[in-house]
Amino acid sequence: MSPLGSGAGKIHVVGAGLAGLxxxxxxxxxxxxxxLYESSQHAGGRCRSYLDGELGVRIDNGNHLLxxxxxxxxxxxxxxxxxxxxxxxxxxGFPFVDLQNDERWTLRPNRGALPxxxxxxxxxxPGTRACDYLAxxxxxxxxxxxxxxxxxxxxxxxxRRLWKPVAVAALNTxxxxxxxxxxxxxxxxxxxxxxxxxxxxxxxxGLSESLVDPALAMLRAKGAEIHHAxxxxxxxxxxxxxxxxxxxxxxxxxxxGDRVVLAVPAAVAARLVPELVVPDDHAPIVNAHYRVAAxxxxxxxxxxxxxxxxxxxxxxxxxxxxVSAADRLVDRPADELGERLWxxxxxALGLPARPTPPSRVVKERxxxxxxxxxxxxxxxxxxxxxxxxxxxxxxxDTGLPATIEGAIRSGLAxxxxxxxxxxxxxxxxxxxxxxAERSNDPRTGGDDLRRAR
Length: 453
What we know:
There is one protein chain. The chain is of the alpha/beta class. It has helices at residues 18-29, 71-79, 148-151, 157-171, 180-188, 207-221, 266-272, 334-349, 373-376, 404-420; strands spanning 10-14, 33-37, 49-52, 57-60, 66-67, 86-87, 94-98, 103-107, 200-203, 225-227, 232-238, 241-247, 250-253, 259-262, 282-290, 301-305, 311-315, 318-323, 359-369, 389-391. The strands form five sheets. The chain has a seven-stranded mixed β-sheet, sandwiched between helices. It has a five-stranded parallel β-sheet with strand order 10-2-1-14-20, covered by helices on one side. It has a three-stranded antiparallel β-sheet with strand order 5-9-6. A hairpin with a 2-residue loop joins strand 17 and strand 18. Helix 1 (18-29) runs parallel beside helix 10 (404-420) and helix 2 (71-79) packs across helix 10. The longest helix is centred in the last third of the chain and has 17 residues, at 404-420.
């Protein structure tokens, strides 16, 4: 049996995005009785795949990259037996192309604890020196109000070719406004942990096939209840506990010993839970999917510098592009965006610029909260003042920005908090991947990460 332990009460998990799925899977693995409720007809939230009828191919709603050091995500994948559904290079490597001069390189961290790769010109960003990378240590001691651009040199080549594109991807926020503390956590859990934590992993087929469908199959095998098209309208509180869940399909009593994990978007949680403060400023992401086959020698993904497109992903029969913190693009017509982004993709992959292949542009106007210092202060902990209610979601304070790793970590933390004290008040604290009591202060280092969007 899982070390989470067992208990008599039922766990109601509301929301079947990755946070809710992670909580439900961990609890089901611990032999807890789980009921999972999802307002839509599908699970996965923003992390899912679907057949695009116009393109005639299956696409991912967005582009997400896992790394081998994403401990929470790896735990989740082991629980749902889906590790073998991912592909990636045998060694850690992050390919880039600078579209201003077509210079190409691959950032290649080394094995072992000491980052000697920065001493090798063939492993680091061209034109940079080993000492340039020491500047990242200025993020470690950053104050709560510090931004990435304030702690690093925005005029430097390394900033333009590495720090800025990675920060924007990780934080979904301009580097000028993004939290230095959150970016430090991202770096300390990836590049700071050597090549063993930096091997990129992408779903072999799609996000749903790797992250969602296996989880639902595991939950069904464990006897969990799964309810789709079931929207939570209100929560009834009595004293210090949740007493009822008011779904559009009817009321559900929350008995003594039952627990509730609320794994819905931040704005929905704020509407349902009195006086809950959550991040309220969200940034857009623009994705473009092209029905075209990438060259066989093309990498699984490549980071673009100096263009409009930021990250390009090679998938079966599809080439996909992601632009984070896309305020400047989100209101542009889809046809215009498809053509403009394709020009960058064509240069990066050596494909013809004309004609533009059939495309689908997906705009997520409220993709994630902006990872600014001000929004970071609004992130709630896992536990609430009600002794049977916990929160999960990428907006919960995990110490990471809104990423796949952060969402999964929040769900696992909620499950751990429930299992550790099944019949007592759950202590308040920040979410942690090993223990809800564990601190995830970005200044302490940590162990996990996330997506390059």
